[in-house]
């Protein structure tokens, strides 16, 4: 379990690192969020392609695989829109409405057990997101994009549980990268950035951080029970806070810390309860 936990911590650091590179591209170098999202999926699909079994291509005939990938493409595009104007930690806090939505959809769509405690935890997590976003009370409008991204991610997580038996984790990962890359390709080509070494390097870091983080997450789940790993997903929030401070010199305010505490507490408890 110690090795799996270490892998999870690395994975959960790489994902916000990739998004921090995306924020640098959009907020500092003026690159379009559509380019960041499309290039991330294209490079990820290219990097993982040599390791994909042939059976993965048969999955492309299933409309549910396409729906799942398109939802992910929308979510990643929205989070890049949010990162253009908002701090990394705030965006990740709002984005983490996703697991809570996934728990709710699991009950409504997948008929997973519903309890009063589970409903209470979802409500607490949602309250935490509202404290971070503060709609109409000083929260940045870009955080609405993060909430939309988190909602897409919650639907994506539910769809992933729905379709888990269709193929191996690597095969499913490849299909989501390839389909999303295809869907976003026209938007990416229409927003090509200036060809500089810095932009190219940050684009590569953005894609590689997301890809390696997700692959390590899949590997950790192969060597340790999901019941023990699920709460560690929330390490992304701590990594996002650290990266936001180290790269952008930004730290959450007092209300955002309160919202973060509610989100993490409700999310960890919900993950334990579900498993």
UniProtKB/TrEMBL annotation:
Entry keyword Transmembrane helix: yes
Pfam families: EamA (PF00892)
Predominant place of localization: membrane
InterPro entries xref list: EamA_dom (IPR000620), EmrE-like (IPR037185)
TM stretches of this protein: 30-53, 65-83, 89-110, 117-137, 143-163, 170-189, 195-217, 229-248, 254-273
Compartments it resides in: Membrane
Membrane topology: Multi-pass membrane protein
Residue intervals of the EamA domain: 19-133, 141-265
Cellular component terms (Gene Ontology): membrane
UniProt KW keywords: Membrane, Transmembrane, Transmembrane helix
Protein family per UniProt: Belongs to the drug/metabolite transporter (DMT) superfamily. 10 TMS drug/metabolite exporter (DME) (TC 2.A.7.3) family.
Entry protein name: EamA-like transporter family protein
Organism listed in the record: Pseudosulfitobacter pseudonitzschiae
């Amino acid at each position: 379990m110690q090795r799996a936990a270490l892998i999870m911590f690395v994975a959960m650091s790489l994902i916000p690192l990739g998004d921090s590179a995306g924020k640098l591209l959009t907020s500092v170098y003026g690159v379009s969020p559509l380019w960041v999202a499309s290039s991330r999926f294209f490079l990820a699909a290219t990097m993982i392609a040599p390791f994909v079994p042939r059976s993965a291509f048969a999955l492309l005939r299933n409309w549910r695989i396409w729906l799942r990938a398109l939802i992910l493409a929308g979510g990643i595009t929205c989070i890049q829109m949010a990162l253009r104007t908002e701090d990394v930690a705030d965006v990740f806090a709002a984005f983490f409405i996703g697991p809570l939505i996934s728990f709710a959809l699991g009950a409504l769509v997948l008929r997973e057990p519903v309890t009063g405690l589970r409903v209470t935890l979802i409500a607490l997590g949602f309250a935490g997101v509202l404290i971070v976003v503060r709609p109409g009370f000083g929260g940045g409008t870009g955080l609405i994009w993060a909430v939309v991204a988190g909602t897409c991610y919650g639907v994506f997580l539910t769809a992933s549980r729905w379709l888990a038996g269709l193929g191996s984790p690597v095969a499913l990962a490849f299909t989501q990268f390839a389909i999303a890359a295809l869907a976003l390709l026209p938007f990416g080509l229409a927003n090509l950035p200036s060809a500089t070494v810095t932009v190219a390097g940050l684009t590569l870091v953005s894609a590689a951080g997301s890809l390696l983080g997700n692959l390590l997450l899949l590997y950790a789940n192969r060597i340790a029970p999901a019941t023990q790993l699920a709460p560690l997903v929330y390490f992304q929030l701590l990594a996002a806070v650290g990266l936001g401070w180290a790269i952008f010199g930004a730290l959450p305010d007092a209300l955002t810390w309160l919202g973060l505490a509610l989100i993490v507490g409700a999310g960890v408890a919900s993950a334990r309860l579900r498993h």
